[in-house]
Specification:
Residues 266-275 have a biased composition (Basic residues). The chain is mainly α. 55% of the residues lie in helices and 1% in strands. It folds into two domains: 6-154, no CATH class; 157-275, no CATH class. It is elongated and about 55 Å long. The N and C termini lie far apart (52 Å). 39% of the residues are buried.
Length: 275
């Protein structure tokens, strides 16, 4: 029988931003115990014991924070994120501790904090961390930010911006937890998607394939402004719906003008700012 969590060890799953956030912590622990090499497994168990024995802050930096920094070297990049999430759980990291690790840590440590949020924080206290991640151009950080914690706690306005940011940055919408539930019958999200598709089409750029997928979850017929709808063929033409723009790959992640610039109806900026 296939190991129920074996997918966590594959490079494809490693790229998936919300895999760790959606996996029960006990399953993560069992997975690492099974797959880590002997030396790494000994280090990992000791790190958990240290974190459990000395939670909170002790001196300038806690021992468990040092272990977070070591995880990549000790466990390898494939398992480091999971190890960090479990160390955070063992340390009983509260929102203040998570914020300290996030804002002082490396991109890898920030990603682990975002993965850990749905496991460790029940209320909206950690939303500033998600909001910060959604302002970045780091696609792996973005993917981690739109996990179950964001699905539960981002308000409708911020969540729509997060979806648009994923489309803008090329993060697969499979990473967006709760997408089907939150996008269903969302006429405002449909308007934003249509505006973005209109801008892309007018600029001679392909419309991201994922945009059409999200649009079908909404209810475009409920839009109060029919003039906002572009020609439907522009959204459904297979030639226009491609996964990437061959003429402008990653560089336009850093473009200064927001989606909608030059359009009569500028959609919300995917970075979380109104345009």
């Amino acid at each position: 029988m296939t190991h129920p969590h074996a997918a966590l060890a594959t490079p494809e799953a490693e790229h998936a931003g919300t895999t760790l956030a959606r996996t029960p912590l006990d399953a993560l622990h069992s997975h690492l115990d099974t797959h880590l090499e002997a030396t790494a497994r000994v280090w990992f168990r000791r790190a958990l014991d240290e974190a459990a024995a000395h939670p909170g802050t002790h001196g300038p930096i806690s021992v468990w924070e040092l272990r977070l920094a070591e995880a990549g070297r000790r466990c390898g990049s494939r398992y480091a994120d999971a190890a960090r999430v479990l160390i955070l759980r063992a340390a009983r990291a509260d929102p203040a501790s998570l914020a300290r690790v996030y804002f002082q840590g490396t991109a890898e440590e920030r990603r682990a904090v975002l993965h850990a949020l749905p496991h460790l924080v029940s209320g909206p206290d950690a939303l500033p961390l998600v909001e910060d991640a959604l302002r970045t151009h780091d696609t792996r950080l973005l993917a981690a930010a739109v996990g179950p914690y964001a699905a539960r706690h981002l308000d409708a306005h911020a969540w729509r911006h997060a979806v648009l940011k994923c489309l803008f940055a090329g993060v697969p919408v499979d990473e967006v937890a709760g997408l089907e539930q939150r996008a269903r019958a969302d006429a405002e999200l449909a308007r934003m998607l249509v505006d973005y598709a209109t801008e892309r089409t007018a600029a001679g750029r392909p419309v991201p394939r994922d945009l059409q997928r999200v649009l079908t979850l909404t209810d475009p017929a409920a839009l109060t402004d029919p003039a906002a709808l572009t020609d439907p063929t522009a959204l459904t033409d297979p030639a226009a719906l491609t996964a990437a723009d061959p003429d402008a790959p990653t560089p336009h992640l850093h473009r200064a003008d927001p989606p909608g610039a030059g359009s009569p109806r500028r959609p919300a900026h995917p970075h979380g700012k109104e345009s």
